[in-house]
Amino acid sequence: MEELKIWEILGICALAALGIYLFRPNWRETLRQSREAKSSDWTGLLLPIGGVVLFVLLLIAMVRG
User: What's the angle, vertex CA 52, arms to CA 51 and CA 57, rounded to 5?
Assistant: First the structure.
């Protein structure tokens, strides 16, 4: 793999700085809301993720077998 050129590194740093600048004001509000979240909110997130993981494992098992 070839090394990144200086302008590519600067571009990546600029994008990272822009992302931090845009999302920083919402971090405190997000952390406050996550502390107050009910467990049912988390199950709504974890169930689809678990389904996708199981589906991927099923596909891997089908390819190997």
Answer: 100
CA distance 44 to 29: 21
- pTM (predicted TM-score): 0.41
Provide DSSP, 7-60. HHHHHHHHHHHHHHHHHHHHHHHHHHHHHT--HHHHHHHHHHHHHHHHHHHHHH
What distances in angstroms separate CA 33 from CA 15, 29, 46, 54, 58, one per listed residue? 27, 6, 17, 29, 35
Q: How many residues does the chain have?
A: 65
With a CB cutoff of 8 Å and minimum separation 6, the contacts of 12 are: 4
Mean pLDDT (the chain) is 86
